[in-house]
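Recap from last week: sequence in, structure out.
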Amino acid sequence: MSSEVCATMAIVCLALAAFFFFRNTYDTLLNSFFRGFWYQAEKCFVNFELMFMDELFTMVRCRMLIIGSMIVCVAVVWYICSSAPSFVPLVAMLIAAIAGWILPGLITNFMHKRYVGKFDDQLLDALGLIASGLRSGLSLQQALGLVAKEMMAPASQEFKLLLSEYNYGKTMDEAFERMADRIPSMDFGITVEAVLVLRSTGGNLVETFEIIIDTVRERKKVEGKIKSITSLGVYQTILIGSMPFVLMWVLNCLNPVYMQPLYATTLGWVMIGITILLVILGSLLVKSIVSIKV
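Predicted structure tokens:
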């Protein structure tokens, strides 16, 4: 009996043994795999729901977005790596598929952070409008309605949803807590905690809102100073991180023959992979240094 036949029989026996060993947990493993695979689609759906609150971005469309992102990333990497040695395109396409699976979640997280940032920028005006309404004799619900009518999105959208939940049976405290869950902002969290405490213990809401406005304004001043100080480090990181790839492109345009070993040999692709990894690690390190919470 030849060695190839023996190896084939050994593989078949191992496959049968694995099948009989895992046959009771097959459904569990399959369900766990699909849950993990669609986790990014659920993340995208939650982020879209928090930002847009409509039926345009359904779970099915988010799943199609994940699949489309994976296909596009794999196709682009296959086109770029078509001239590389045989195993490099396979490894690169596998990495591209993982990146395409993760990328939509990262993009929607970034979009939601920008959404929360816009809400933070409007928060001082919203609190001032609420305080003015309370000072003029309006109730808290009427002052919140004033913000929903007069201001632009996302503040108007969020306060409209808060009032809608209140009108459909939620208590005002529950509506505020749900809004704080949707908007993970420290400034708004301080506001919600102060309002909930005052509603349970009693107190002057107008004075409380004025104190909150002063606190938020001072925090924003400090945040602005820190951002202006650390912005130079961020721009330097972008410049230094993009420099190897820009230099690679320029040299390839000037002298393609000189750069050919970088794309046509295994060692060249290993060097490209190490460069990308080091750029990512350096960017993450700089981000952890310049990210200062107030």
